[in-house]
Amino acid sequence: MLKKDIIELCLLHMLSSEDLYGYEILRRLHESFPDTQESAIYALLRRLCKEGYTEQYEGKKSDGPTRKYYRITKSGYEKKDNLLNEWHRLRDTLSALGVQ
Description:
- 62% of the residues lie in helices and 12% in strands.
- By secondary structure, it is α+β, with helices and mostly antiparallel strands.
- A three-stranded antiparallel sheet has the order 1-3-2.
- Helix 1 packs across helix 4.
């Protein structure tokens, strides 16, 4: 499981509890993955939408620009579960090998 997959798992996990707008997703992911480029996260969001794992919609207008929100889809929940199972297998394999 590569870093990209871990970030994807984290992103889908965040969206499984609430809809979020792009900048909020970016801010939260940067707290744990500070070396990840903003463009890479937005590219991941676009790909997840294109593949049907998330949906994008416009939020209510505020004083600033309209925010684009993201929500997870049914297939997104399935993708999240698959990535989580893959993570558990990798963690268990590393642990069995004594990698801590």
